[in-house]
Amino acid sequence: MVDPPKGDAFRMHWFSLPLRHLCRDGAPDEPETTVRLGNLHDGCDIIAEHGHVDVRPCSTKRQPDTTITAPPEVLVALFTGQLTMRAAMTQGLVVDGSTAALERVLPGGGSHG
Fold it and tell me: Each residue of 65-74: pLDDT tens digit?
């Protein structure tokens, strides 16, 4: 996945299953937050609440606190802890909304580190 063959299509919603295992709620005492990867047509919502993370298909019923897009290899590196959010931003990560919401669900969770 890090170096896909040319012409391969990528679908953002493919991240749904791995994200369930990679994400953590780094701020369980804070109000619920939603991070959207992609968009309503091809994406998923990461919902962090009370120390629990759920990943669901995007929904018009949820208003995300932040929406992120990036090249697939950057998302893989970010959510597997190989890149910090700041480093990912230099490689194409676009955060539209709260960076704190994204930091909250990243591996290692929270902005304390």
Answer: 999 999 989 9
